[in-house]
Amino acid sequence: MQNSQRVLGITSGVILMLGAFQAFAVTTLKLSHNQNRDHAVHQAMTQFANEVKEKTNGEVCIRIYSDSQLGNQRESIELMQNGALDIAKSNAAELEAFSPAYSIFNLPYLFRDKAHYQKIINSDIGKEILSSSQAMGFIGLTYYDAGARGFYAKKTIRTPEDLKGLKIRVQPSPTAIAMVKGLGANPTPLAYGELYTALQQGVVDAAENNIISFTLSRHNEVAKFFSLDEHTMIPDVLLISNKSLKKLTAKQQEIVKKAALNSSKYMVQLWEKSEKAERAKAEQQGVEFIVVDKTRFQNAVKPMYDDIANTRPELFEMVNRVRKVE
Ligand code: GCU
């Protein structure tokens, strides 16, 4: 009797230990991005992390590192490829160097309006692009709205002629470089984190971005004129490495994918609110938002499309697919 009691005691001890072990079987995934914690995209990703934690009963925990703490966007993607990082929020411009399919988002004035852009993101084209980087060791989980981009500088830019000869910071995207060259200016690819100082010290004369990033990275302190030319709408992209995805069970993978989509929907609402608030704040601080005649900019970049038709047939085919979406 005593013996069996002892055995029972030992067995339940083992079960307890196993229970305790399971309770600590948490998979922690590191997520890196380059915006500060006030940015709408940080809030959307916080919701993503919270939903994953809740739905997996705490088994999958996503730890977010903001402000390029783990490196700029390019470095984060490379860390992910090397297995040192699980998830990265990047941008479709940066991703062009890893998967050419992302070029489509960097073409100026391809989307007729925001509704058209949203349709593409949610279409099969959008999904194809997210999985196009699989062979590079990662895939896209979802897109995050990142508004429309405009040029900004220390002087007013109303027409393409006003851009002539300016040194303009662009993201490291071949299409962005071609666009700025086509507009008669000199493209200077730089990482986002280096731009404030570059503008302040006159290394570049101008840059281009959406309103939220313009104000939250304090570029409005050094460039007071923001043109609402809306040349591109380039989404942010939430990426996960193939290896990290495989660390999760099928059920956990499903939860992660669903939570990413939900946070993307949340981001659309966050964006609208935040963009209004940031614009009002910038205006109070003396920034002038300039309404421009977009057709002049549209005409100036038309030759880019002839060039693509002649040199990149697969991209041109995608352009035509996008244009056909009503
Ligand atoms: C946007 C985008 C960032 C990107 C930045 C840039 O703000 O959301 O991901 O880094 O543009 O111009 O570099």
Question: What's the gist of this structure?
Answer:
This protein has helices at residues 2-23, 40-55, 73-81, 92-95, 114-121, 124-131, 174-182, 195-200, 211-216, 242-246, 250-284, 294-311, 313-324, and strands at residues 27-32, 60-65, 87-91, 138-144, 150-153, 167-170, 186-189, 206-209, 225-227, 236-241, 288-290. The protein has 326 residues and is of the alpha/beta class. It is globular.
Explain what the structure shows.
The chain has 326 residues and is an alpha/beta fold. It has one domain: Bacterial extracellular solute-binding protein, family 7 (D-Maltodextrin-Binding Protein, domain 2). Helix content is 48%, strand content 16%. The protein has helices at 2-23, 40-55, 73-81, 92-95, 114-121, 124-131, 174-182, 195-200, 211-216, 242-246, 250-284, 294-311, 313-324, and strands spanning 27-32, 60-65, 87-91, 138-144, 150-153, 167-170, 186-189, 206-209, 225-227, 236-241, 288-290. The strands form three sheets. The protein has a five-stranded mixed beta sheet with strand order 2-1-3-10-4, with helices on both faces. A four-stranded mixed beta sheet has the order 8-5-9-11. It has a two-stranded parallel ribbon with strand order 6-7. Helix 12 crosses helix 13. The longest helix has 35 residues, at 250-284. The chain is globular. The N and C termini lie far apart (79 Å). Mean pLDDT is 93; it is low at 1-5 and 7-19. Alpha-D-glucopyranuronic acid (GCU) binds at residues 34, 73, 91, 146, 171, 192, 209-210, 213, 236. The site of alpha-D-glucopyranuronic acid (GCU) has 10 residues, from loops.
